[in-house]
Design brief:
Elements: H1 2-12, E1 20-22, E2 39-40, H2 51-69, E3 74-75, E4 79-83, H3 88-100, E5 106-109, H4 111-117, E6 125-129, E7 133-135, H5 137-150, E8 154-156, E9 159-167, E10 170-177, E11 184-190, E12 193-195, H6 201-205, E13 220-229, E14 238-241, E15 253-256, E16 262-265, E17 269-271, H7 283-291, E18 302-312, E19 324-326, H8 328-331, E20 336-340, H9 346-361
Parallel strand pairs: 1-8, 4-14, 12-20
Antiparallel strand pairs: 2-7, 3-7, 4-6, 5-6, 9-10, 10-11, 13-16, 13-17, 13-18, 15-16, 19-20
């Protein structure tokens, strides 16, 4: 989010603006941004009129344009959403929801048509989304950073914001920079402050003086593990089951990366601390989930791969939560924009979120 917002502001606003892009890690995109399915979502599942739905549909169109213009590796491979015998009504509801969200090219396909395209997939009904694709997320982030820096953005890694204090029409931002044991304290003033801290956005918000802390939502860490398929890819498209109840996730689905490797995931596991470990013990859970639509899968074909962590705003008992993007209309601090709960489809929506953030800043 920070990369997309910095690139958008730097390339659309007057050169008189000085933009600092602060990063707590040694390089950009080392957390949620690089630990996902790398899927360009069509906008199918999200509640009608939600930020997720609107920004995903707009962001997907912007992302395909950006990739084409700036040579970011991507492919519009399409995906099948497959339903088993007891899931036909859920599939019909997905189709209705997608239409209400303005999603193009989501069409029902017969079992015969599905078998022609994906002979190893088992399902009683299916939908095909031709607008779904995949992207090299690392190349995308590299492109955003290069364009931002070329437009004058100063990228400052290894930097943690320790305090933000409103003073008149500005903010005084206190930071520590450098490696552990050799940090230096640095302060600067800015007229706009954007909290796009991902997994750490909620914590950063607690360091903003004068901010009504009741407006800071609780963050839930949700780990999603991935297992890779050892062997030749059995699919040419992405394969998704019907989403889980209450939309905790989209189900353990099959994705392809730009090299053609198949990965399965992510699952959903609420955790207390940031931990990217993928336990081999989860193999059986993956095996049972995937075999519902790919019965030929063998246990030895699944290899633990990597995990990502979603910054969710919904508890295990609650339904899915929308993105939360706050400006002065809610917290009464002009010049402050905060982004909370930017999970999937955050990658797809990134450019639309950046544009929306710029509009909220009224530059």
């Amino acid at each position: 989010m920070g990369l997309a917002i910095a690139e958008h502001l730097a390339t659309t606003q007057p050169a008189s603006f000085s933009i600092l892009l602060l990063e707590k890690n040694s390089a950009a995109g080392q957390e949620t941004s690089s630990r996902n399915s790398e899927v360009i979502h069509a906008g199918i599942y999200y509640p009608v009129n939600s930020l997720k739905a609107r920004l995903c549909v707009e962001g997907r169109r912007l992302l395909y344009q950006y990739c084409a213009q700036h040579d970011v590796p991507h492919r519009k491979v399409g995906k099948f959403i497959v339903a088993q015998q007891d899931e036909e009504e859920a599939l019909a509801q997905i189709l209705r929801n997608a239409a209400a969200n303005g999603v193009e090219e989501l069409t029902p396909v017969t079992t015969k048509e599905l078998q022609r395209h994906e002979p190893l997939v088992r399902a009683s009904h299916a939908l095909f989304s031709s607008e779904t694709g995949i992207i090299d997320s690392h190349a995308f982030m590299d492109s955003l950073l290069w364009r931002a820096q070329s437009a004058g953005v100063q990228f400052v890694p290894n930097t943690t914001v320790t305090r933000v204090t409103p003073e008149g029409s500005h903010f005084v931002v206190s930071t520590t920079s450098g490696s552990h044991g050799a940090e230096e304290v640095f302060k600067f003033r800015c007229s706009r402050f954007i909290n796009a801290g991902g997994l750490h956005a909620n914590d950063l918000a607690t360091r903003i003086d004068g901010l009504d802390q009741t407006l800071v939502p609780r963050l839930y860490l949700v780990r999603g593990c991935y297992f890779s398929l050892n062997g030749k890819a059995p699919f040419r498209h992405l394969i998704y089951p019907v989403p889980e109840k209450a939309q905790k996730g989209l189900g353990i689905h099959a994705t392809l990366d730009m090299a053609g490797q198949v990965r399965f995931g992510p699952d959903v596991e609420y955790i207390d601390t940031i931990d990217y470990h993928v336990a081999d013990a989860r193999r059986e859970h993956f095996l049972q989930a995937v075999r519902r639509y790919y019965p030929a899968l063998q246990p030895e074909q699944l290899q633990p791969d990597y995990a990502g962590i979603r910054p969710k705003l919904s508890s295990p008992e609650a339904g899915a939560a929308d993105f939360m993007i706050q400006d002065a209309s809610s917290h009464l601090l002009p010049g402050l924009v905060q982004l909370f709960g930017i999970e999937s489809p955050g990658l797809t929506a990134a450019l639309a979120i950046a544009k929306h953030t710029g509009d909220l800043l009224e530059l």
